[in-house]
């Protein structure tokens, strides 16, 4: 859905030429929280430049405000539909812990922020505003919508096993267990595969582009774009646009637990994942973020 961004290569503020595809790029920046417009004009104005600079700094690119090759390439990669900037707070901004305690109050933003990462004291994980989490819960239930096997072409038993593994990745590091139940209505976490607009104001966009989204605690909605070629095992799929379902599921479950996006490319909570890319191992950054919210699983070492 974002292939047209290529035509914006080298666009920058103040240029005389109006950019035909700029409204699309503005919608993109708005969708992921970078700014908001009342209308999407083709004018490359100050607001556009500021939003692009914030995007660039989140993704470790030169924050020039110009739509250079690397920026365009990054923007076109498939990604999670959850925003990078929530309520004007860029959770992804690289931050250095400046406190000796493991938690500190970030007065400027009024939210409790995470502690030191390993080594340099740089952490990349983030939370939603006010750090919501599942309070006092050791067990969360989940259900997979009955239409999922037909929509994905993946057998129900394989989907069950895949999601069990994805939840188990997180259960290994925090003191929460997850169990599948048959009742969609009663489950804490409800998994669907949906096309386009599906009732939450965050429509899916067809092949690649946005792959899925998970809502912050204690909402429990866990949604995947039914238009994707979801693969149980990308190595046995011949499709160039195959998407590894378990990798995306692990990321979205991170949101369900309360994690925001991480600026660290090797973290599971990094916003983008390529077609055919597999990322199944939680990074220490993901683990530290989850453990800030819930504490460590006593069996985790
Ligand atoms: Zn995400
Ligand atoms: Zn949704």
Short description:
This protein is an alpha/beta fold and 301 residues long. It has seven helices and 13 strands.
What would the keywords be for this entry?
301 residues; Muramoyl-pentapeptide Carboxypeptidase, domain 1; five-stranded mixed β-sheet; two-stranded antiparallel sheet; Collagenase (Catalytic Domain); calcium; Peptidoglycan-bd-like; alpha/beta
Describe, in plain words, how this protein is organized in 3D.
The protein has 301 residues and is of the alpha/beta class. The chain has two domains: 3-76, PGBD-like superfamily/PGBD (Muramoyl-pentapeptide Carboxypeptidase, domain 1, Orthogonal Bundle); 139-294, Collagenase (Catalytic Domain). 25% of the residues lie in helices and 15% in strands. The chain has seven helices and 13 strands. Helix 5 (156-171) crosses helix 6. The structure holds zinc ion (2 copies). One zinc ion (ZN) binds next to helix 6. Pfam families: Peptidase_M10, PG_binding_1. The active site is at residue 252. Zn(2+) 2 binds at residues 80, 251, 255, 261, 269.
